[in-house]
Design a protein that fits this description.
Blueprint: H1 13-26, H2 32-43, E1 47-51, H3 56-65, E2 69-74, H4 81-93, E3 96-101, H5 107-114, H6 118-121, H7 123-139, E4 144-146, E5 163-166, E6 171-174, H8 182-192
Parallel strand pairs: 1-2, 1-4, 2-3, 4-6
Antiparallel strand pairs: 5-6
Length: 239
């Protein structure tokens, strides 16, 4: 960035928002590794990465650009075994500090309170209980958080910035791979031999909870496999 980085801890919320928005403009076009390195210098231990282990390229980038980075994984209780295995690989074999965050209730406790298969009857409530609320707790200690969102992922994400402001949570939000296309992702995977979630080989373009995710056909929208047959397109983490 061309401007001198202030001590973010001394900024008011309005100043921090302005700082983040300015950084988003100045870092547009920068390589994700450069954005992550800037974030580490700026926020230090007040920076956290949120990963679903369906964004393996982000985790690989983070481990290389920000060794020892804080990473939180939301274990909804509904993940594919392959996703849990991917989490375990990155926790053990890469230089990150991974912490798993659990919902307040187990699946059995949720079933007892709301009835079984809430994800079929009210997926928004299920996501709120098993994803959104745990994320709020996971992010609470931090000033800035990192996601693996890309602009081409979905129509709802075309305007995301590489650095911006999460007004809902009053935090800086970074999307370092926002501008990357699938071709960029594939090239990085090939060059760096990134370990991918095995579901990729089974046709899962977007990976979420097992009951609400299916494989997609060639040429089908990558998000078509999420909550298929409903109008739901987002879990609520980014709204």
């Amino acid at each position: 960035m061309s401007t001198e980085t202030p001590a973010v801890a001394d900024l008011s919320p309005d100043e921090l928002r302005a700082f983040a928005e300015r950084a988003g403009v100045e870092l547009e076009g920068a390589h994700p590794s450069e954005i992550l390195a800037w974030a580490a210098r700026t926020f230090g231990d007040d920076l956290v990465v949120a990963s679903s282990m369906g964004d393996e390229v982000l985790v690989d980038l983070v481990a290389k650009a920000v060794p020892g980075a804080n990473v939180i994984f939301l274990d909804t209780g509904y993940h594919f075994a392959e996703t849990i295995g991917t989490r375990d690989y990155y926790a053990e074999f890469t230089d990150i500090r991974l912490r798993t965050v659990l919902p307040l209730r187990t699946v059995a406790e949720q079933d007892a309170e709301h009835g079984p298969r809430l994800h079929d009857r009210d997926p928004n409530l299920c996501c709120a209980l098993r994803k959104v609320e745990p994320l709020e707790r996971g992010l609470a200690p931090y000033t800035a958080w990192v996601t693996g969102m890309r602009r081409e992922d979905a129509p709802t994400r075309t305007d995301i910035t590489v650095v911006g402001w999460d007004a809902r949570r009053g935090k800086v939000k970074l999307n370092p791979v926002a501008a990357w296309t699938q071709a960029d992702v594939d090239a990085y995977v090939a060059e760096h031999h990134v370990v991918l979630n095995p579901l990729r080989q089974a046709g899962y373009a977007s990976i979420g909870c097992a009951p609400c995710t299916r494989a997609t056909a060639p040429g089908e929208d990558p998000r078509a496999g999420r909550w298929s047959g409903t109008s739901k397109t987002e879990c609520g983490l980014h709204t």
